[in-house]
Each structure stands twice: as C-alpha cells, then as structure tokens.
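User: Hey, quick favor. My workstation is busy. Could you predict this chain's structure for me?
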Amino acid sequence: MKEKMLMRLERDKLSHKVESLERTVKADVPKRSLPSPNQSGGKSQDKKISMTHAETNKENANEDSVLPPDDRENPFLDSEFDPPKVENMSLRKTFKAHGAAVSNICVHPRKPILGTCSDDGTWRMYSIPNGDLIMSGDGHKDWVSGMDFHPRGTHAVTGSGDGTVKIWSFSSASCTSTLRDHTQAVWSVAYHDLGDFVVSASMDHTAKLWDTATGRCQQTFRGHVDSVNHVTFQPFSNNICTASGDKTVSLWDSRSGLCIQTFYGHLNSVTCAAFSLRGDTIASSDADGVVKIWDVRMVAEREEIITGDYPVNQCHIDRSGSNIACACDDGFVRV
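Assistant: No problem, here it is.
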C-alpha cells in the first residue's frame, strides 16, 4: 500500500499536465468496435471494454435519484443460516488472472462469476469454478483497487489509483460513467442494495456517495485524518461504514453526511470493515494482523482475533454470522 501511495504521488504532477491534452484529443479518436463473443467450442472470448472509446456522459441528467426510506426492515434480521463446514474447505482451482497483483475480488450476485481487479490496470470476470475468462475491461490510467457488482448483476463499478470511479454496463459493453471528484487514489467502491448509489473511499481522506443515474456526487463524508481504505453500506440501510488509516472505523448517515458513531481500538491502519448480513455486527481488520468484532447497537468491541504477524488486507463475515474469512499479507486465507 505504501509503495502504491508513493507511485501515485510521483505521478501526480505528470498526470495533471497531460490530462487537459487527453480531454482535447478524446473527442477526435474514432470509436473502436468491440470483439464479438466467441460461442464456438463453449469457451468465452476476452471481451475488452475501453472507457476511452465507449463512455456515455450522464452528468447532464435532470433528476437525481432519491435514497429509500430510513425505516426499511432488513429481511434477514430474523433469518438463520447453517454455518459452512470449514473443515471441508480445500483449494479447488488455481489460475492466472492478471499480469500483476490481484488487488480485490467480488462474486456476482446471481451467477457463478468471479470479478477481479488488478495492479495491471484492468478488471476481469471469470466463470467459477472453471476459471474461464468471460470479460475484461480497461480504461483506468493506473492500478484498479476496488470492484463491486450491481445488486442485479447488470453493471460493475471500479475504483483506481488514477482517482476515478467508473461504472461499466455489461449489456452495452462500455463504461457508462466516469466519476472524477476524488483528488487522490480510490481504494474501495461499493453499491447500495438498490443499485441507485455507489460509495467510494479515497486516499484524499474522504468517502463519497454517487448517484449512478446522473453521475453526480451527492454527499462527501469528511472527518477521517488519514486515507479511507475501505467503504461499504450497512445491509438494507442508508448508512455507510468506513475503515481508515487513522486507526478508526466510522459509521455515517448518507443523507446528512454526518458521522453517527466511531469505533476506537485498532493500533494500526484499518484495512477493511465488513458487516454481517443482519447488519448488527462489524468485522474490521488492520495492518497488525488483528481483526476486531464490533456490536453496532452497543458501539462496543465484542472480540479481538489475532491472525498472525502479517497485515489482514480484507475480511468478510459469512451469511450465518459465525465465521470470518481473512485474506492475509502472507498469502494465506484464514477462517
């Protein structure tokens, strides 16, 4: 992470100089035709999406989307799921997905598809468990650090070291919006459960709420004093949760942009924060290899888990709420 920050800062001056020139020539570049899917032999062809030649500008849309009511009920609040059998878990398949480090993964909400993004500046989609390439997209000018699928699986959102957030449409095979209000690298992105909004977390110490219909920034969340490394929505809620380099985890109201609660206790940069499906528990990980479990209602720490001597880059709570998967910097996933 530190190496990426240094690379980003070194490139800032040069990128600002060429940015105006690129915008000038962009309109004069002819549109490229996208390769058609290859359906022969049952294999999918690499379908590259180039934002530069396919982007649709939505900033002139008239009406902003409206956040749903705050009193919505979480349909899984009283649900119970059987925990996965961790003892039966084993490596199923290994395949080379990118030409550089894989920075994030996400699972399609409706199909057995894995989304990946990488330091090579691209994002890709693979079938699981076979690992066949379905689609890839490029257009960011730097490493891609965050990716998430639309709840209906029709779009994807990505965040990059170039400071932009991009929304991609699978039906039109194009980038439909590029959101540029962040002043530094974007680490993390996430969709609202209805798909009308996206949140992003940046090294510029802020998180932002974006309207996917208009491409406008509807809210900026300020208060962290270091990089915001991760952001996510509380399930079936308008609240967002951020994890920051200032060693805190914060809960925010999307309507007002105000901080609702801050969770203190980490002794190093917080790398990720994840909700349980019920939305009453947060798991947060840090660069010391520590995972903390928080009670959202009581604003209290329930438990501390020490995974080892290496940073935990990502953590996730399974739907039963009884297991946490941690992706660690030593190359292991610990449950």
